Amino acid sequence: MPNIKKSTGKRGPRKRKLAEEFPPGEVFTDLLKKKWKLGPVIGKGGFGCLYLADVNSSESVTSDAPYVIKVEPSDNGPLFTELSFYMRAAKPELIKKWISSHKLKYLGVPKYWGSGLHQKNGKSYRFMVMDRLGKDLQKIFEEQGKQFSRKTVLQLGLRILNVLEYIHEHEYVHGDIKASNLLLGHEIPNQVYLVDYGLAFRYSPEGNHKDYKENPKRCHDGTLEFTSIDAHKGVAPSRRGDLEILGYCMTCWLSGSLPWEDNLQNPDYVKLSKIRYTDNISEFMLKCFTKEDKPDEIARYMEKVMALSYTEKPPYQELREIFLQGLQNIGHKDDGILDFEVSLNGDIPAKPKTKRKLVAASGTATADEDNAEIAVDGVKNAKKRKPASPKIGATKPKLQKISPKPKTNLKPRKRVQKLKSPE
């Protein structure tokens, strides 16, 4: 039987040494003899642990530390694969040069700051120092009812295309793009970063693209609902596979689900479903969306991606133009702002309390005074609601502020349903 990756985990060896947890204050020395001090653990799994970290000093590592250190036993595999990518393609000077030459505001690839081996109690541990990031998109996706707005999805697509073009030009493909592998910036939440390069594959070492070859022993690598058709067939990952995966992700973020999610226990069913639907993109769109809300730009993107050959270089700019046109069609532009609110530590804050109320003759409507757009939309929606049956001689309803101290001789009005802030 093929080794199948479940949607909640990574494909890999069945047995790994469990991670040992190091105390805060432990000092690691990287290959360039730079010393790093560990803070508290912020993540732990079968692979190892993730710690807050900072450069070594007499001070303790605080909660606003700018780095993290990933640590795992040296004979485990995922970090070794990931480290190879970071050392080749994620050095700060490489990323800075790319940002400058491509006139980008930022690039969503975490920077590599150092790595090495740490010895303790006769055991060896591999570690890597990276940028600290914030909350992952999967948590936000679930908190928002498993649906992002079209504007957000298109802007995510633009940012991820930038990342994919960069890593592809540095001879790697990612192979496992999904919301849980996309993290917001720690200090700038509107930035999004692609992480977890444990399945990263060097598809073109020294400029020589790997040949197309199906391998039954490697069928279904990746995350089953999103992985590419090539991966289902056991073919080594390629650039077109990354772009195909992104298309499935964007469709899911917009519609809330994918047509094959009803039978993820059957990898061959998922594979055949993807082949069927991507042979007919129109059918795929109608399966995921109503005719009225079908996003034409996603259909155009998928058609162009599915037409690529295995070794063909994707037309990244043409794909970006498709998403930019999609934004224009819905009255937006690429302003770089994601329309879910997050705080500086990457968490979504609670909605603020209502500060002002508006009242209509037919009932009341609330709006947040800090958001003029929401207030205006709320008033418009209030006007569109069917009013209560007026008494004979009643005047046209007018909106006015509620008096903070209403007169006691006024009869109480019936309260209608509060207006919801638009998504």
What do you see in this structure?
With 423 residues, this protein is α+β, with helices and mostly antiparallel strands. Helix content is 30%, strand content 17%. The strands form 4 sheets. Strands 1-2-3-4-6-5 form a 6-stranded antiparallel sheet, with helices on one face. Strands 7-9-10 form a 3-stranded antiparallel sheet. Mean pLDDT is 82; it is low at 1-14, 348-403 and 405-423.
Q: Note the main sheet.
A: 6 strands, antiparallel
Order of helices and strands: EEEEHHEEEHHEEEEHHHHHHEEHE
- Provide the spatial order of strands within the biggest beta sheet: 1-2-3-4-6-5
Write down the Rg.
26 Å
The percentage of residues in β strands lies in 15-25%
Topology readout:
Blueprint lengths: L26 E3 L5 E10 L4 E7 L11 E7 L4 H12 L2 H10 L10 E9 L2 E9 L1 E4 H7 L6 H20 L2 E2 L8 E4 L6 E3 L6 E2 L26 H4 L6 H17 L11 H12 L2 H8 L7 H11 L9 H14 L26 E5 L2 E5 L4 H13 L15 E2 L22
Antiparallel strand pairs: 1-2, 2-3, 3-4, 4-6, 5-6, 7-9, 8-11, 9-10, 12-13, 12-14
Helix pairs in contact: 4-6, 4-10, 6-9, 9-10
Key terms:
single chain, 423 residues, alpha+beta, 6-stranded antiparallel sheet, 3-stranded antiparallel sheet, 11 helices, globular, disordered N terminus, disordered C terminus
Give a short summary of the structure.
This protein has 423 residues and is an alpha+beta fold. Helix content is 30%, strand content 17%.
